[in-house]
Amino acid sequence: MKFEGIYTPAITPLAADGTIDNTAFAEVLEYLVEQGVHGIIIAGSTGEYYAHTTQERLALAKLAREVIGTRTQLIIGTGAIRTEESVEYARLAKDIKADAILVGTPPYALPTERENAAHALAIDAAAGLPIMLYNYPGRMGMSMGREFFETVTRESKNVAAIKESSGQTNQLHMLARDFPQIGLSCGWDDQALEFFAWGARSWVCAGSNFLPREHIALYQACAVEKDFDKGRRIMAAMLPLMDYLEGGKFVQAIKHGCALAGLRPGGVRAPLQGLEESEQQALQAVVAKLKSDVAAIVGGTA
């Protein structure tokens, strides 16, 4: 399997009482499919998987398969502290015939690279599906490194890509140079242009929950058209959004962006709290300008 295009880590809408709103969740999935994203990830951090029970995660994955069908790729996140729990999510992914799984480092445990590789390979053995690795040391406490990559690529043929979210350009360079068999996927938004320049063919971007066409436009310019002059202009237009999202209320901002797009995201689960009114207004202004600027660039009027 090749990962190519825009992959959206879907939000999980909540009802007023804090329960998962399945109808609104299905609406989000339909919106993303209609907008043309190339894949949807369920149980990513943007989906607040860490705040869900096991049963909620199982139900969301099954519902996503029912709604999406075969219209776009479905990737199931296996993130958990315990390897045994991640294995359970991998088995679910296999049962519902997901297209791939997302495999990260278990948080808090701080495994060595060898231990982390054993963790990933146990998940692989349970699913037997294509794998997108997920390296996010800022959340997990440890970074996937050379020993990890050498081990998993030697022991498994299922490692197809990596969502690289370390923010370290030397990590990007190492992967591109020394592990070309692992497809690069941008996981650090303000480095998207650099990722595409180094051969990335996909981008896992939370902002595509509510601005899918604008994210697709950058992918199209850089990865398909190879027009990096156009890509730089689109990237420049998107940077204010990326700066806003990194302001400390990431999931809250993504969910409010979805509300601006006409979806029904609901609130966020504790300990997170929603945006204040001034923050909502600031995001609305950023989104409006971004949409206008990217439309002008794509339309050839800017």
Structure description:
By secondary structure, the protein is of the alpha/beta class. It has one domain (5-225): TIM Barrel (Alpha-Beta Barrel). The protein has helices at residues 22-35, 54-68, 83-95, 113-127, 137-140, 146-155, 169-178, 192-197, 212-224, 228-245, 250-260, 277-299; strands at 5-9, 39-42, 73-77, 100-104, 131-135, 159-164, 183-186, 202-204. Strands 1-2-3-4-5-6-7-8 form an 8-stranded parallel barrel, surrounded by 6 helices. Helix 2 links the parallel strand 2 and strand 3. 48% of the residues are buried.
Return the CATH architecture: Alpha-Beta Barrel
CATH topology, by name, is TIM Barrel
Helix content: 40-55%
- How many domains? The number is 1
Low-pLDDT segments, ≥5 res:
none
Structural class: alpha/beta
Attribute tags:
single chain, 302 residues, alpha/beta, TIM Barrel, eight-stranded parallel beta barrel, 8 strands
